[in-house]
Amino acid sequence: MFIRNGSSGNGVNGQSSHGSYVGYTNGPSIDLSAAYKFSDSQWSMRGYGSYFNARSHAERRGTGGDQQILAYSLSTPTIPQNIKAEFEVLRTRAGLDANYAFIDARKSRFAADVGIAASSLDVENDIRSFGTNVNIVKNDMSFFGIGPRFGFSGSHVIGKGFGVKGGLGVSVLLGQGSIDQHQTTANERVREDQLQAVPMAELQVAATYDRKIGGFLVGSELGLKVEHWANLPDWYAGTHSAQVNPYKAGNDSITFAGPYFNLTASF
Predict the structure, then answer these.
(1) How far is the CA of 250 from the CAs of 9, 166, 193, in angstroms?
(2) Which site among 44, 61, 209, 231 is 20 to 30 Å from 173 CA-CA?
(3) Entry pTM
(4) Does the pLDDT of residue 76 top 60, yes or no?
């Protein structure tokens, strides 16, 4: 699930030129990870990958209905009140961490992580009018970056196989951001590419259960993950004029949050 955080910006002659959407999109996230602990050492390595893809639909009819969908500028009177929007979000992540356990007891383990992360984010939205189904605004935003990651993780065994775990991480992704927006009502198009730094923070808490089966330790996790991307290109700028650089109209952010369930195995 993702939560889109609203923002605003200024257009030509000081007029507001930024659409705003605050809503939710549900979809599954596929996560894979593998770890290796060096024998007789407090060091370990972890590789991971994650994939999320979801679509959402929202609409606004007149002054009623789903008011969270859009807040258009009155400087563009050709945009009707009766509108609908289709959104698609694609997020992928991968990385490699070195992990050092500064507390490695029988029931508790707390460690510091340092590594490198690579992530990409693509957001597309297509705004159309009801009835005629005419496209008003089509906006595509993409970003890919690589950068360092730092974090902390910990786990504690409560007893009888049950336990708790958590983690906190921060990455700074350096890469290419781009926005391609076509406003058909005014026959304007904006395309901009720019290098930028995107901070990303992540939080994870979970309850765990482990059980030995033969020579394997099989476990499960049920918890919550939160992931916040900041300083992104404006991916929802519904009424930009072609005279406005999208990167100067206000930066954007996206938060992913939701429950998760994992199965684990080690030997």
Answers:
(1) 5, 33, 15
(2) 44
(3) 0.79
(4) no
